[in-house]
Design the sequence.
């Protein structure tokens, strides 16, 4: 099995599935209404999942190596990190962990796009 397939599977499992499970668990356990604390990581996960489709990637976040791509990804990463800090202050630890993992997944996307 090629190494890129293994990294792709790990990226999907850690960057998308794990934060989504954490967010659903928190939402169901606390019976909270959809608030801005949940909206930002859910939006970031949804856009990250949709960028795995090659045709949607350039439409949603911009073409590879473009200024729009880096601005969009950096903005989403900063939003996710800010949300992680805010959720930690509010002591919503699962949302904070999910937001931090999502921010790392977006950062990984920037690193891979810059190197390749």
Sequence:
């Amino acid at each position: 099995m090629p190494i890129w397939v293994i990294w792709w599977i790990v990226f999907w499992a850690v960057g998308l599935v794990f934060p989504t499970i954490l967010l659903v668990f928190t939402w169901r356990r606390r019976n909270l209404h959809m608030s801005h604390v949940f909206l930002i990581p859910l939006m970031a996960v949804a856009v990250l999942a949709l960028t795995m489709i090659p045709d949607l990637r350039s439409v949603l976040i911009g073409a590879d190596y473009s200024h729009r791509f880096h601005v969009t990804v950096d903005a989403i990463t900063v939003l996710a990190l800010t949300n992680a800090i805010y959720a930690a202050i509010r002591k919503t630890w699962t949302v904070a962990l999910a937001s931090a993992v999502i921010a790392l997944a977006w950062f990984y996307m920037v690193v891979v796009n810059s190197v390749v």
